[in-house]
Amino acid sequence: MSQTAVSFQRATPQSATGARQAALPQDERPYHHGDLSRALVAAGRRILEAEGPDALSLRAVAREAGVSPAAPYHHFKDKGELLAAVAAEGWNELSAAIAAARAREPDPALAITEIGVAYVVFARRNPALYRIMYRSACDRETMPDHAKGGDSGWAHVAETLVAGGMDPTDVQEMMLTQIASWCTAHGVAEMAGFKEFEPLKDALGGEEAFVRAVLRHVGIMSGRRYAR
To answer: pTM score, two decimals?
Structure first.
């Protein structure tokens, strides 16, 4: 299976609001009437990636979006609700990336690795957003619907495992294997940037190749051990 090379290099963030706005395509620039909520979330993401979560506030988002300081309060009661909306967008994008990775690989045993690669690529490209996604979910009794719903990345992992031979009626085993798959990708995402691994990345042909090799060595579906 041929793989498209992926660059994990992030663009250098621009700290000035005006510079960020000027760089946007015309149809993505701040505040189009009737679409303020989307504009505020987009502004929040720009601030998040450029300056970090501590810089994010409703006032800062209003300034970034080019609207009055009171405007965000029509959509978000506080910073927490804004962060939840930003996180929801992140979960949706991660799910889309996982769905695309799964669709590209018909073999479930290989698809589970490609899902992990997609996860790590997303996390490495969107580090601040990735942190906010988990910060918004870790204290909840259940993950948000957009993180575990019908077309979520979590659901795609489960469907891939079943396609590979897992028994969907064995709820505990399914849950443990889903968690193992998710936590493996999460751990690789956390450690993929370690300088110590640079020689191995170079030897394997880059960071994506390194991530893929690590995930394959974990062997969630190695040997089709879940075949019925």
So the answer is: 0.78
